[in-house]
Design goal:
Rossmann fold, binds adenosine-5'-diphosphate, alpha/beta, about 190 residues, 9 helices, globular
Length: about 190
């Protein structure tokens, strides 16, 4: 199994690259952001809880997020591997993911981080907000909060997997194809 974490700040291009990776490597794509947006659009209890945090640019609590992720992984017993997009975003989420995969007799193969500077991210997300319909993409102070949360709570996950020699850093500026080529180089060496 290849289990990949696609990592990087909001707006760094994770979703775009994930779509290309699953095409080439037949992995199951799990985006916790997409899962929350699905729940919110259907006004489920989980969606209504998540909305309170997402609307402020905060993380949804681990107690909610980890259970949702676990259910999704367990609903794909046939999977050849997974690509985790937007998860883990905290150290406890990373520990829970490792424990889940260990229970399935597998593990994370690599974490690929897309590097993009803060000011570029704000520009990209504001632009995306014009068409995405996402309220969390349209307000600069909410976007700045998401970046702050990323730097304080999520960035340490890179070092957590670096200690396991699994973290790779890739320049997230360039064409979609150039970035994908760099990701492919890492994956083909695994
Ligand atoms: P982006 O990468 O552009 O921030 P996502 O779609 O990954 O967008 O996430 C949107 C929002 O959903 C996040 O700002 C956060 O509030 C919530 N969210 C997504 N994944 C997680 C997670 N693993 N833990 C906590 N909250 C999450």
């Amino acid at each position: 199994m290849i289990n990949l974490i696609l990592f990087g700040p909001p707006g760094s291009g994770k979703g775009t690259q994930a779509a290309k990776i699953i095409e080439k490597y037949t992995l199951i794509h799990i985006s916790t952001g997409d899962l929350f947006r699905y729940e919110m659009s259907h006004d489920t209890p989980l969606g209504m809880q998540a909305k309170e945090y997402i609307g402020k640019g905060e993380l949804v609590p681990d107690s909610i997020t980890i259970g949702m992720l676990r259910n999704k992984v367990e609903s794909h017993p046939e999977a050849k591997g997974f690509i985790f997009d937007g998860f883990p975003r905290t150290i406890p989420q990373a520990e829970a993911l490792d424990a889940l995969l260990t229970g399935m007799e597998t593990s994370i193969s690599a974490l690929i981080a897309l590097e993009v500077q803060d000011e570029e991210i704000i520009k990209r997300i504001m632009l995306r907000g014009e068409t995405s319909g996402r309220p969390d993409d349209s307000d600069e102070s909410i976007i700045r909060n998401r970046i702050e949360v990323y730097n304080s709570e999520t960035a340490p996950v890179f070092d957590y997997y670096k200690q396991q020699n699994k973290s790779y850093s890739i320049n997230g500026i360039g064409t979609i194809e150039e970035i994908f080529d760099h990701i492919s180089e890492v994956l083909d060496d695994l």
